[in-house]
Amino acid sequence: MRNDPASTAAAVLARAGGPGNVTSVAHCMTRLRLGVAEPAAVDAEGLRALPGVLGVVTDGAGVQIVLGPGVVEEVTARAEALVREAGPAPARPARPDAGACAAAPRREATPVKALLRRVANVFVPLIPALIGCGVLAGLNGLLLNSGLLPALTPALTAVASGFMALIAVFVGHNTAKEFGGTPVLGGAVAAVVVYPGVAKVTAFGVHLVPGQGGVLGALAAALLATRVEKWCRGRVPGALDVLLTPTVTVLVSGLATLYGLMYAAGVVAAAIGVAADWLLATTGPAAGLILGGLFLPLVMLGLHQALIPIHTTLIAQQGYTVLLPLLAMAGAGQVGAALAVYVRLRHDVPLRTTIRSALPAGLLGVGEPLIYGVSLPLGRPFVTACAGGAAGGAFVGFFAMLGDKVGATAIGPSGWALFPLLAGNRGPLTAAAVYGGGLLTGYAVGFAATYLFGFTDRSRAATPA
């Protein structure tokens, strides 16, 4: 029976220290992401024990509750309403042990992890649009190649490409919002990156190109705009703030973007594309093995979203990201491992029920239910699932080294759900064949490795007869 979203939201907030302890509410495809004022007040074990919660990831300044696709949107909406009703948190009196209790969670949030979390917060809200436009772009490509419905393809091109043409504006808006600036000012400065008129501007002896630097340039521009705005807020008299602060922010940040950030970000973006192509062309199987094998731990830690800027940069440059199909093999290894657990522990009825419920999502590329519900609690199957992902990644990487590159025109889905988004230098059919072969390899190796090495005598004996 499905859990009531309102009850789940209330229970989650209660174990997160109450609505007054929550400073922000957001979600990605599978996780409810809560920012908290006092990390020590979060009852992580209590959250894990809630019905419908598939896993919990704490990162010092917040907590991520894995709920699964579909459910997470409803629970997030309810949680936002409860937090709004609660209003700002009252000041808490200092407790003698508060410093000691809070120290451990805060130490976990290293500067690098905190930065990656904030960058992910910029890009995660963009994923639905990336998926929708990516699917339409793939459909439009099929229509163009087949010659069908020629009157419709120009309209589909406009619908599918409009968001990607202006993605820099959305990145700038979200960046300013995440880092404490005025969102519309961040978007205004980032819009400089895609404005056609920049072609008339010369920087470092060359004419700029609209879109140069892509999302990286937009991210840098909005970060600078936020810093300039904060500097102005503390120095401009209140009576002039509404006039001078926006003007100075846009002027200073805009000129810096034109005469420095766009060029620098363009160099970095070009280097990312060259590095990805070189990596697959020269070390394809090894690169695929490493990327496919290490992606599940990144998902477990909630750090996989930090790769979105790289994927987005590759899509803007080449039309697809060659990294996502490699990383998606981790999900195939996870599915194979779960099937092996289902076969070996046939007397463990609750675990087999969990696998049956989570397997459809796993086949569609949503791995958290299987990670937190099956492989991670058992220990060894998590490692053997990584082995399956490594094998699938090596398969796809091997064909990339031979010249058959496989990419995804959008990010978000994986598993079987990635097939409509596949593209490559040899056409969509070849890309689908290579990707499908990688999935089968991941399933097979994940199953075999788990079946043979994923269990100890104690774990088998612990299953109920």
Describe this structure in words.
- This protein is α+β, with helices and mostly antiparallel strands.
- Among the domains are: 5-109, Glucose permease domain IIB (Gyrase A, domain 2, 2-Layer Sandwich), CATH 3.30.1360.60; 289-461, no CATH class.
- Helix content is 67%, strand content 7%.
- It is built from 18 helices and eight strands.
- The protein has helices at 5-15, 44-48, 71-86, 98-108, 111-123, 127-146, 153-165, 167-178, 183-194, 214-233, 238-301, 308-318, 323-344, 349-363, 368-378, 380-402, 428-453, 457-461; strands at residues 22-27, 31-36, 55-58, 62-66, 202-203, 206-207, 406-408, 422-424.
- A four-stranded antiparallel sheet has the order 1-2-4-3. The chain has a two-stranded antiparallel sheet with strand order 5-6.
- β1 (22-27) and β2 form a beta hairpin.
- α13 (323-344) runs antiparallel to α16, α15 (368-378) packs across α16 and α16 (380-402) runs antiparallel to α17.
- It is globular, with a radius of gyration of 24 Å.
- Residues 90-107 have low confidence and may be disordered.
Question: What is the topology?
Answer:
Elements: H1 5-15, E1 22-27, E2 31-36, H2 44-48, E3 55-58, E4 62-66, H3 71-86, H4 98-108, H5 111-123, H6 127-146, H7 153-165, H8 167-178, H9 183-194, E5 202-203, E6 206-207, H10 214-233, H11 238-301, H12 308-318, H13 323-344, H14 349-363, H15 368-378, H16 380-402, E7 406-408, E8 422-424, H17 428-453, H18 457-461
Antiparallel strand pairs: 1-2, 2-4, 3-4, 5-6, 7-8
Helix pairs in contact: 1-3, 5-8, 6-7, 8-9, 8-10, 9-10, 9-11, 10-11, 11-12, 11-13, 11-16, 13-14, 13-15, 13-16, 13-17, 14-15, 15-16, 16-17
